[in-house]
Automatic annotation (TrEMBL):
Highest classification ranks of the organism: Bacteria, Pseudomonadati, Bacteroidota, Sphingobacteriia, Sphingobacteriales
One Pfam family recorded for the sequence: YceI
Domain Lipid/polyisoprenoid-binding YceI-like as annotated: residue spans: 5-170
Protein name: YceI family protein
InterPro entries: Lipid/polyisoprenoid-bd_YceI, TTHA0802/YceI-like_sf
Species per Swiss-Prot/TrEMBL record: Mucilaginibacter ginsenosidivorax
Length: 172
């Protein structure tokens, strides 16, 4: 069995996020800081990567003052607590076909996640894409969640948010 290791190229990797609420949605990006993938006989077998929570950006709010206020709220304890937890991690625990299982840690809280990933390797470069749907309340992000607060009306924020991940890695 041939084992290959690929180091993530952070400048060629990113995560697009989408958070929804009753009245619409917000979207933005968050950076992949570092990580690696392990392939056995050309197939994804494991890996881990680190997400830089301090890099979160909001793309759909164009007013600078509103954007800064929103970014500050995402950085606060209501959401990512980035001063205490500047990183989140995903550790791949198993792969079956194109389905990946892993442990996602946000705010020091770890839960299993499962998602489908497309992985390709060409000339020593690995590209991986996947879409994760995360229940934010599992990671102590309860702000305006219908699970914890009543009568929110159109201020309710849905619990699930999406992470659309695109990662590039080079053979180590």
């Amino acid at each position: 069995m041939e084992t290959q290791k690929f180091e993530i190229v952070s400048t060629q990797s990113n995560i697009d996020w989408v958070g929804r609420k009753v009245t619409g949605a917000h979207n933005g990006t968050i950076a992949v800081k570092e990580g690696e993938f392990i392939l056995n006989d050309g197939k994804l077998a494991g890996g881990k990567f680190t997400i830089d929570t301090t890099s979160i950006k909001i793309l759909d709010v164009t007013d600078p003052a509103t954007n800064a206020q929103f970014a500050g709220h995402l950085a606060s304890d209501d959401f990512f607590s980035i001063e205490k937890y500047p990183e989140a991690t995903l550790h791949i625990t198993s792969v079956s076909g194109n389905h990946v299982e892993g442990d996602l840690t946000i705010k020091g809280i770890t839960h299993p996640v499962g998602f489908d990933a497309a992985v390709s390797v060409n000339n020593g470069q690995l590209t991986a894409t996947g879409r994760l749907v995360i229940d934010r309340t599992k990671y102590a992000m309860k702000f305006r969640s219908g699970n914890f607060f009543k009568d929110l009306g159109d201020t309710l924020i849905y619990n699930d948010f999406e992470l659309n991940v695109t990662v590039t890695a080079k053979a180590a």
